[in-house]
Amino acid sequence: MTTLSRKIKCGIEIHQMLDTQSKLFCSCPTKIRKDPPDFTFLRRLRLARSEIGEIDPAALFEFEKGLQFLYEGYNDSVCLVEMDEEPPHPTNMEALTIALKFALLVNARIIDEIHVMRKIVIDGSNTTGFQRTMLVAVGGSINVKGKEIPIETICLEEDAARKIDERKDQQTVIYRLDRLGIPLIEVATGPVIESPEEAREVAHYIGLLLRSLGKVKRGLGTIRQDLNISVEGGARVEVKGVQYLDLIPLVVENEVKRQVKLLEIRDELVARGLSVTDILFEPVDVSKYFEKTKSKVARSALEKGGVALALKLKGFKGILGKEIQPGRRFGTELADRARYWARVGGIFHSDELPGYGISEEEVKILSEVLSLGENDAFVLVFDEREKALKALEAVYKRVLEAFSGVPEETRAANTDGTTRFMRPRPGKARMYPETDIRPIVISSQLIEKLKGELPEPPEETLKRLKKHYGLSDVLAQQLFSSEYLFFFEELVQETGVQPVIAATLLTNTLKSLRREGVNVEVLEEEHIKKVLKAVAENKLAKEAIPEVLRALAENPESSVEDVIEKLSLRGLTLQELERLVDEIISERKQLIMEKKEKAFSPIMGIVMEKVRGKIDGKIVAEVVRKKITEAISS
């Protein structure tokens, strides 16, 4: 991790899905489904003002997309509440109790009367057009490596629907309602985190505390981290959707780099003597200059009746091509805005042209038509006229923001650790009271009862596991630093595998596979349990674990048994091994008599070529030594 050039401030919001019997406001089960849905229905969501008459900018952004939403449901796990055809049921007290326990773990001040609020969300992820949430506690803290990290708020809320697909030609987004309504705990820290590594450590420790409660779901997508990041002299940016711990430091570092580069661009614009008044929104139709173009994008758009529109950007030559994150340039920022506001495929800009089929001659013509000066640039869009105009308007607004440095916005985390524009930051107008659910009074008797039911601190769990399972200090600390501390004990108890094998898989093996580019996030806990069960039953050698996990990651629908069979990794029994060694020694009797004990290495190598991945190497070594000794003495 590189040293960052500016002081940063970062806060984290952790969203943990709970493993309760039912959803937050109905009795449907909290089960994520993979089978085809039983029914669908189509909806459109409309924008509503808050109770004080204001419009939230993020909600306005989603509304202006003009989308419709196709919802998929199941007869046995989606009801009229999720469909917004029936009022919500009373709050799930099992979920609220878990949230209260977490509040007690971090010494937060619990709200004595909890009110449910509505948070406006009209991107289709909630059929109602809002998400129900409630503030449970404020003012707690945790200690991470000697530093106190304030916990500002603890909320309990309903999860959103799952986005399944998007049909751009029909302006339709498809959501599945199995996840909608599952309880979530949201934990928000203060903005006191000062480094990418510290961000991971804080998120990790909060995750440990949540998992210590026992009633939380595990696996990809069940815990999500949002990061609020700002650099000195910049603005607060929210990065949403970081799904696993090891990506957090990279996301923080890359987002900080982006903001620093944006501040440098602002300073460069000032140094060039430019101001917002120099940038004019005067799109020019340049379609006729591309009638014989070799650009496939341009030709396709024009043949469909579209246009080519260009916008001059005074003084911006060289700015659009500046890299602000690995593989992403300032021009990418403009393209992101154009895609989201106008739903175009993208844009071209002069810092990357000629290229993409657009010739040097075409660029020269555009420069003349737009009256470009030596330091001027342009942006080019090919699409339907209305969409192209909207795209250039979005580009124009983003260019004006460059004069202020870092715009406040909500961004999404990419899998490579970079970030992309998602939507404007929401304002205060998105919250208003829920009128269909009564407030919940939290009694002192309930709090005292819950204090007696709190789990042991993660540090005590670590000590107990080391002592009980005989783990080395290094392996135990690796386990503690991963998200698998509590899963480890469950694995050992359910599979009967040696503790060191389970711990090594959860720490070193998964990390190594991820570094090799294997998508280990698709592996479910059940996959890992069955692999270790096969090892415990001598159906699979521990050496073959990485190979089996790699195959399962590539084909997650396959069974462990099928993968073992397909890869010819079925474990050897001790009797089968002994017979094989007897055959090899019999064929090489002369070698053994000549080299005596020194024959071990060559014989071991021959045997391992045939049995590698099918039986523990230590067992093989013991059998080979024993059989060589018998052969020498016979």
UniProtKB/TrEMBL annotation:
Please provide the record's keywords in A-Z order.
Answer: ATP-binding, Ligase, Nucleotide-binding, Protein biosynthesis, Transferase
The answer to keyword Nucleotide-binding applying to this record is yes
Top-level EC class: ligase
Q: Which gene encodes it?
A: gatE
Which InterPro entries does the record associate with it?
A: Asn/Gln-tRNA_amidoTrfase_suB/E, Asn/Gln-tRNA_Trfase_suB/E_cat, Asn/Gln_amidotransferase, Asn/Gln_tRNA_amidoTrase-B-like, GAD-like_sf, GAD_dom, GatB_C_1, GatB_Yqey_C_2
The reaction(s) annotated as catalysed by this protein in its Swiss-Prot or TrEMBL entry are: L-glutamyl-tRNA(Gln) + L-glutamine + ATP + H2O = L-glutaminyl-tRNA(Gln) + L-glutamate + ADP + phosphate + H(+)
Q: Does the keyword rRNA-binding apply?
A: no
HAMAP family per record: GatE
Similarity field = Belongs to the GatB/GatE family. GatE subfamily.
GO MF annotations for this entry? aminoacyl-tRNA ligase activity; ATP binding; glutaminyl-tRNA synthase (glutamine-hydrolyzing) activity; transferase activity
User: How is this protein named in the record?
Assistant: Glutamyl-tRNA(Gln) amidotransferase subunit E
For this protein, the Enzyme Commission number is: 6.3.5.-
Q: Which GO terms describe its biological process?
A: glutaminyl-tRNAGln biosynthesis via transamidation; translation
Report the SUPFAM superfamilies cross-referenced here.
Answer: GAD domain-like (SSF55261), GatB/YqeY motif (SSF89095), Glutamine synthetase/guanido kinase (SSF55931)
Q: What does this protein do?
A: Allows the formation of correctly charged Gln-tRNA(Gln) through the transamidation of misacylated Glu-tRNA(Gln) in organisms which lack glutaminyl-tRNA synthetase. The reaction takes place in the presence of glutamine and ATP through an activated gamma-phospho-Glu-tRNA(Gln). The GatDE system is specific for glutamate and does not act on aspartate.
- List, alphabetically, the GO terms of the cellular component aspect: cytoplasm
Q: How does it assemble?
A: Heterodimer of GatD and GatE.
Q: Where is the Asn/Gln amidotransferase domain?
A: 486-628
